[in-house]
Amino acid sequence: MNILNTLQRTWDWFRARFDSGYGGGLASESGIMERREKVTVFVISIIIALVMWVVVNLGRDLNTTVQFELTVGELPANMALASDLPEQVTATISGEGWRLLPLRNNAQTIAIDINQPEVLLADMIREKIGATGVNVLAVQPPILRTVLEDRVSKRIPVVVRHDLSFRGQHNLVGVLVASPDSITITGAQSIVNGIQNWPTDILELEGVNNDIMERVPLQHMPVILKADHAEITVSARVSEYTEGEQRVRIEVSDIPMGSEVNFNPAYITIRYTIPIEEYTISQTAPMFSAIVPYADLRADSTGYISPMITTLSDTLHASVRSVQPRRVSYFEVIR
Fold first, then answer.
1. CA–CA distance, 89 with 141 (Å, rounded to integer)
2. DSSP letter string over 184-197?
């Protein structure tokens, strides 16, 4: 690095001198040619210096780190790994620079025999690269311990993780739908039995104003687990929403014979949001109920109660925005 920095500073100094000495529109043609020749000589000198620097340094003994990808050999029938394995092993090696370059620039892999309870990674790496004339100084981790269990499969639901923002008054109509909505995972019994669901990567969308149809990868699984899908399709309806309102009479549930409850006011106003295409239907059909359980009245001592609001339609996608008044007074008449 010091040699390169020195060459860079030298080049900057030399270029500044050329710019000041030969710049401007008054330079003669012979001066321009002379300048070009000098620049060419200087560039060639830099290239030669760099080549010599590389040759000299690659002939020295250097230390570097190399990543080795782990691959798993054949498993016994109906068995699976119950211990997690690293995906990579880091080896610190030393040797002449030109011997280290191929190891740094080419992907390195190690196939491990998991039928052995202990795998000596340092010995395996030394055996793999020993013929290249380099030395293995350290390996992390140096040893892998493997545990095998019965292999089982299990169907689990997929959890769609998302971060969505919508344009204007747009929003989802219903919920996000995953297809498939569940996957089959296979692995060691003790691990598979403890997994109840599996998440996706986060689906991030901004300014959504149209229906959603996206392919979303599942979150990365460890080497010791396998799944029958690597990604799923996430879909949803999206619509622009508007507001509506309905007056709803308050009712009492489970009231005993001979009792009557009067509310003041007897009606409440429910404001709701709904997709524009469903608004007209919502204005002609009962959308909500306002129910007060009789047991809640008996347990109340304030004289005011909040009705429970329930959406009646299974096909319309209305969401309650506000209820006025939220609490009403009442009195009971026993006949």
1. 7
2. EEEEEHHHHTT---
DSSP line for 14-29: HHHHHHHHH-STT--H
Q: Which helix (H) or strand (E) holds 299?
A: helix 294-299
Query: What is the mean pLDDT of the segment spanning 87-112?
Result: 75
**Cβ-defined contacts of 274-280 (< 8 Å, 24+):** 274/241, 274/242, 274/243, 274/244, 274/316, 274/317, 274/318, 274/319, 275/173, 275/239, 275/240, 275/241, 275/242, 275/317, 276/239, 276/240, 276/241, 276/242, 277/239, 278/316, 278/317, 278/318, 279/242, 279/244
Is residue 258's pLDDT more than 90?
Answer: no
Instruction: State the average pLDDT over residues 199-216.
Output: 97
The 10s digit of each residue's pLDDT in 318-328 is: 999 999 999 99
Any alpha helices (H) in 75-169, and if so which ranges?
97-105, 121-129
With b for 16 or more beta-carbon neighbours within 10 A and e for fewer, the 120-135 pattern comes to ebbebbbebbeeeebe
What pTM was computed for the model? 0.66
Q: Between vectors from CA 306 to CA 303 and to CA 310, what angle results, nearest 5°?
A: 150
* Residue 80 pLDDT exceeds 90: no
Looking up tokens 């570097």 gives 64
Q: What is the pLDDT of residues 173-191, one digit of tens each?
A: 999 999 999 999 999 999 9
- Largest Cα–Cα distance of the chain, in whole Å? 121
Count other C-beta atoms under 10 Å from residue 236's C-beta: 19
